[in-house]
Amino acid sequence: FLWKQPGDIPTDQNTIVLKLDVACEVNRDAAPGETDPKKKYINSAVYSNQIVWDPKGEQERQFADSPIRPIHDDILITKLRPGQVVSCELHCEKGVGKDHAKFSPVATASYRLLPEIQILEDITGDDAELFRSCFPPGVVDIVEENGVRKAKVVNPRKDTVSREVLRHKQFEGKVRLTRVRDHFIFNVESTGIIAPEKLIEQALDVLMEKCAIAKDAMAKITNGDEEK
After folding, report:
1. pTM (predicted TM-score)
2. Fewer CB in 10 Å around end: N or C, the chain?
């Protein structure tokens, strides 16, 4: 599927056409005194499953294995009452988030540094149990070494950095909470259009392209300085 550039006319290679034609009317079969709009009227609510794909050119063959449709069928678009009509033609084209937010496939994206929990002195016995309870499940485990039960950090990635352990005086000087400054944990949520793992790949491609542009610009500046 091609990008539609400014000035290009819509074609079957750059534009998807959808149609929505819905009219609300009184349901003559409804019981007298009915108050539920869904029973009293026909098409009192317009949902995404009423959007119909209108294939153009070779699109019907091109998308034969996976016809174009809304991802979810039960998205409420609007509500109508008798005499009201929705009639529209929708044109869909490829775009990027920097042009308009509607094109962004990313819902929420965030990052954090990997927590680092350093046990400076052995924490054993009942203190080990208390130490483990200060962290989310799976961060700290109890292991037995030479018959002694002691606390051991097994998965700091699960830590939420609550720093609860620092409230207990028996752990003063025995633990250090820091973050690994060069280890980033990204969390990327998709709107459903593109899988999160694909978003990461595409984002890295964009980043590499921007780095190449910056590198060329710096090279031109450096060469210009050398000529002067």
Report:
1. 0.60
2. C
